[in-house]
Design goal:
single chain; 248 residues; alpha/beta; TIM Barrel; two-stranded parallel ribbon; 7 helices; 32% helix; globular
Amino acid sequence: MQLEMKLGFRSSFNFVPEGEYRVSKELRMQLSAAGFEVGVHDLHHDGKLYGSRKGFARNAERINGYLREWGAVGFRSGFMLHNVEWAHDLDVLYEASTFDTDPFEPQPDGMGTIFPFWVPRPNAKETESEGYIGLPYTLPQDSTIFLILAENHPDIWLEKLDWVAKHGGMALVNTHPDYMNMAGIRNGAWEYPVTFYERLLQHISSRYRGEYWLALPKEVAHYWRRAVVGKPPEAATGNIKETEETPI
């Protein structure tokens, strides 16, 4: 959070509501007050969320409770597991458990796009606006590059970012602060220097100054929903509020 604020960035912090830690109200309020977004990350993060249709529907009720409590509008599952049809059980503006392409994921069926996409509710009429926005990550995850593939530099991030920018797409990346060594060194197989992430942010702000829209996921989803559906969400959730932000 401090690193991003120093470089003029804001992101979404996604927390596991029933995992190995507890998410305090004070932390969520601190992030929101500083201009960050808070999202719900799975339920238990045990890889079982999509084990069965009945089980997912039951867990979705609990997830929706946390969405309401946290004032959150976005969701991402653990291990990037996803089912775009089942996800309609979630009261969300957007769902972010997909990617453009990533053969290293447990469920490697990429969406094949570097843009947000609209997921209408099944059997909805063409004139209806029920559905949610899918936000695929378009830069590979830090855990894949630095932990699994053991890269010693962020060049893959920078090269992919430049390619996405060339095609006018959305640059979205998943990072894990618990894997970052904040001292800027590599200390063990499951840690990488935070300077790798810092170089990515510096590359964005220096090379593309004045050419990009620095937006939270919820702002991108609001904009894309208006562009695709043509009107604001009506009754999906009380957490969704229209914003006036538009891309630069």
